[in-house]
Amino acid sequence: MTRPRLETEICIVGAGAAGCLLAHALARSGVRTIILDAGGRTAAGPAAIGMDSRFGQAVYSGATEGRYFGLGGSTAHWGGLLAPHDETNIEGNDPHDAAWRHIVDSAEAEAPRVLDILGFPGQPDFVERADAIGRDAVGALRGAGISTSAALHLPFRRKNLLWLLDAAARETAPPHVVPQATAIGWQADPARPTRIDSIRARACDGSEMEIGAHRFVIAAGALESARLLLELRESPAGRAIPVTALIGQGLSDHLSLPIADVEEPDLALAASLFAPRFDGAWMRSFRMTAAHAPRSFAHFTFAMDGAGFRVAKKLLQAVQRRSWPQTGLRETGQATVELTRIAWTRLARRRLHIATGAPTHLQLDVEQRPAAANRLRLGEERDRHGRRVPIIDWRIGEEDLARAEQLAALYLERWRGAGATLPALLPRPLSPASTKPHDAYHPAGLTRIGQDRAATVDRELKVHGLDNLFLVSTGVLPSPGTANPTFTMLCLANRLARSLGDAKMPG
């Protein structure tokens, strides 16, 4: 069958967060790119486009609820939280400390550039926020061995990073965007087997195309990127990838669980200290990290379930998804009073409105330690695209739960040691059923960065064994670490974009 062949300098597979930022940065550098994605213009869940997974043990909801295909990918639905990995990720006795050092240094160096691309008007400032939380509270926590930091949240109109592709379309070298195109095969350069010559893609109507490029980047999300690389390694084009590379192994995520409730008399105090603040259109939320403890972080969650909050959430999420809001005039009218309070608190006090008496919890996020048994592998069943369906073996082990219990006790002990200036907390019994919330999925470890034989990519994000294939996703992190991984991944993606943009292309 004769297929049309497109030629470009760089071909990007995946138009999610990393792919959008890469395409935008390369367009600004004048580099010609083609970016393809299995989904359409509007992001959809895996089942909608035939990207189902099977599960060998427990269902990993990060594969069913936590990922989306299409332009913008999961950013059409995420919370937009930006927090870099920092020095707390280097433990001193971890075999992956060298990789973490490179990751942390890259995040620090690239943060100003990434924030500039995302439209943040200031400089990176994720450190202790004594001026916002209160110097007495921050000082008491610091004295007890808990540091505080601030995360940024993208404005709703910028959360869906599809806008980066739209902006790139106005550059002198706009990306050629190919939606509804699934990568189904790879071809090596006949003269140089360590180079990829082209990729074969199939559209939803069954038609196929071939894309030739000088360099290729897999940026399809942690799970799908691992799947693509496993498919490549099993094909003739991927024979140069070392068999020692543990592609798809070591899947780990954050276990997130409420460890304490704020006692009712101190609910207002907790809100005054730790409720999110606004800096223009950007929101800041606060988190805490215990010194000299395994990788983890804690933050307060405020129950916001009033009619006004529900309507506001629907309206803003519709803006993010670029869809029509599913709310009616009657529902909006019933929520008018609370919507007014939300708007007044936002504009006059520059705070997120927290209803009086709203239940408040201290949430602890603990990373799973990577385990070879937690992995993604290729099954024998084929999906509608003719590709082997991935099987995800994942579970929360006894060691994970024991670490979560130990860290919960540590955080609460240090909180009590900080003194009476802080809200009083009532510890909650831990339950395995509460270790994975439905709104946060942070898969890592599947395509780990490193120089050792088991690593998948090197420090330049080049796949070991191949000269012109790169991979960027949260899967390159050895583990989830002490932060939501998306911002660090964007920093790594921007570093890669600068490297690819600076390198001279073959003639």
Please, could you describe this protein's structure?
The chain is α/β, with parallel strands linked by helices and 507 residues long. The protein has a domain at 1-79 and 154-240 and 378-396 and 441-477 and 485-507: FAD/NAD(P)-binding domain, CATH 3.50.50. The chain is 29% helix and 23% strand. It contains 13 helices and 18 strands. The strands form four sheets. Strands 1, 2, 6, 7, 8, 9 and 18 form a seven-stranded mixed beta sheet that branches. A four-stranded antiparallel beta sheet has the order 4-5-12-11. Strands 13-14-10-17 form a four-stranded antiparallel beta sheet. The radius of gyration is 23 Å and the shape is globular.
Major sheet, described briefly?
A: 7 strands, mixed
What distance lies between the first and last C-alpha atoms, to the nearest angstrom?
29 Å
**Structural class, judged by helices and strands?**
alpha/beta
Number of helices: 13
Shape: globular
CATH architecture of the domain at 1-79 and 154-240 and 378-396 and 441-477 and 485-507: 3-Layer(bba) Sandwich
The top-level CATH class of the domain at 1-79 and 154-240 and 378-396 and 441-477 and 485-507 is: Alpha Beta
Strand composition percent? 15-25%
Sequence stretches where pLDDT stays below 50 over 5 or more residues = none
Q: Give Rg in angstroms.
A: 23 Å
- What's the CATH H-level superfamily name of the domain at 1-79 and 154-240 and 378-396 and 441-477 and 485-507? FAD/NAD(P)-binding domain
